[in-house]
Write a structure and sequence with these properties.
Blueprint lengths: L1 H16 L2 E5 L4 E10 L2 E6 L3 E6 L3 E4 L7 H18 L13 E11 L5 E13 L3 E14 L2 E16 L5 E12 L6 E15 L3 E15 L7 E13 L4 E11 L7 E12 L6 E12 L9 E12 L1
Antiparallel strand pairs: 1-2, 1-5, 2-3, 3-4, 6-7, 6-17, 7-8, 8-9, 9-10, 10-11, 11-12, 12-13, 13-14, 14-15, 15-16, 16-17
Length: about 325
C-alpha cells in the first residue's frame, strides 16, 4: 500500500514537470502543457483556463526559447516535402503525350486453284515524343511463296531520333536502317544518315515536316561493298481526316554523290481506319515503294510492297 501511495505521488509531482512556460509579448506568463506549437501559434492546456489557442503574434517565448525550435522547423519542412511528394504524380505516371506508343500489324492472304500462293506481312512500330526528343522504331517482315517456291523474303529494321529544340520549329536528327533481302542484288544493306529538319505545318489535324542531310550506304553481296555517300532530302506527313480515319506518308530522295545521275527514291503511304467497337484495333491499307537506279536489271528497279493488315495499337 505504501508503494502504491509513493508511486501516485511521483506521478502527480511529475505532471507539473511536463508543463512549459508561455511568455506573452505583454510580459505575462502562462504555465501549462503545450499540446501543439507551430509558426502559426501555440495550443496550451492550462490547469485552470483549460485549452487555449495563442497566436504566434502574441507569443514572445516558449520555455525561454523561440516558438518553433530548429528541430521543429526541420520536422515541419520534412513533413511539407513528404506531402508535396505524395501529392505529386508518381514517377511512372508519365503524361499521355510522352508515353511510348506501340503498333502491331499482321496481314495475310492466299490463293488455291491453278496455283497456290500465300503472302504474309508482320510489322511492329514504337514511338515516343517529349519536348526535347522524338523516337520512332519500325520492323517489317514480308514473305511470299507460289507453289511452294519462295518469291519474297525481306526484313526491314529502321529507327530515327529527332533532337528537338524547345520553342523552335527546327530540329536535328540521326537515323539508321538495316535491310535483309533474298531477292536483291545485295543480301544486306545498311544506311546511316544525319541532318536537320523543320516542322512545316503542325496543328491538330495535319503535321508536315521536312528533312535534309547526308547518308552513307553499305551493301553486302554486290561487286563494291564499300560505303557509298548519298544525300537525303524529303519529308513526312500525318493527316487526321476524321476521328477514326488517318493517313501517314513519307518520301525521301537519295542522290548518289559518287555516281552522277544515280539515286534512290523511297515512299510509304498508309491509310488507317479505326473500328468503332474496338478502340485499339484498326484496319490499314498501304504500300512501301523504292525506285533504285543502282539495280542491274532496268525492269527491276522499282519495287512495291502493298498490303492490307489488321492493326493493334497500345
Amino acid at each position: 500500500m505504501r508503494r502504491l501511495i509513493v508511486a501516485a505521488l511521483v506521478f502527480v509531482l511529475a505532471i507539473p514537470a511536463l508543463a512549459e512556460d508561455i511568455e506573452l509579448v505583454t510580459g505575462e506568463v502562462l504555465r501549462g502543457r503545450v499540446v501543439e506549437r507551430s509558426s502559426a501559434g501555440v495550443s496550451l492546456d492550462h490547469p485552470i483556463l483549460g485549452k487555449l489557442w495563442i497566436s504566434a503574434a502574441n507569443v514572445a517565448k516558449v520555455d525561454g526559447g523561440p516558438i518553433v525550435s530548429a528541430i521543429d522547423h526541420a520536422v515541419a519542412d520534412l513533413t511539407a516535402d513528404t506531402a508535396t511528394d505524395t501529392d505529386a504524380a508518381p514517377a511512372d505516371d508519365v503524361p499521355e503525350a510522352e508515353r511510348w506508343k506501340f503498333k502491331i500489324e499482321v496481314g495475310a492472304n492466299g490463293k488455291d486453284g491453278n496455283g497456290d500462293t500465300s503472302d504474309l506481312r508482320a510489322a511492329i512500330e514504337a514511338k515516343q515524343e517529349d519536348e526535347r526528343k522524338r523516337w520512332k522504331f519500325r520492323a517489317i517482315w514480308n514473305y511470299s511463296d507460289a507453289d511452294g517456291d519462295k518469291t519474297k523474303d525481306n526484313v526491314d529494321l529502321s529507327g530515327v531520333r529527332d533532337f528537338l529544340i524547345p520553342g523552335s520549329k527546327w530540329f536535328f536528327y540521326a537515323a539508321g536502317r538495316h535491310e535483309w533481302d533474298s531477292f536483291q542484288d545485295w543480301s544486306r544493306r545498311l544506311t546511316l544518315s544525319a541532318g536537320v529538319g523543320r516542322e512545316l505545318i503542325d496543328n491538330d489535324t495535319f503535321k508536315l515536316r521536312g528533312r535534309a542531310g547526308y547518308s552513307a550506304v553499305n551493301e553486302t553481296g554486290t561487286d563494291a561493298e564499300s560505303w557509298r555517300p548519298e544525300g537525303v532530302i524529303g519529308g513526312e506527313a500525318e493527316w487526321t481526316i476524321t476521328e477514326n480515319q488517318f493517313i501517314e506518308a513519307n518520301t525521301f530522295y537519295f542522290p548518289d554523290f559518287d555516281s552522277r545521275g544515280q539515286y534512290r527514291l523511297t515512299s510509304r503511304v498508309q491509310y488507317k481506319i479505326k473500328l468503332t467497337d474496338f478502340d485499339n484495333i484498326a484496319i490499314a491499307a498501304g504500300f512501301d515503294n523504292e525506285y533504285d537506279t543502282h539495280r542491274k536489271d532496268e525492269f527491276d528497279r522499282n519495287e512495291i510492297n502493298y498490303y492490307v493488315a489488321l492493326l493493334y495499337e497500345f
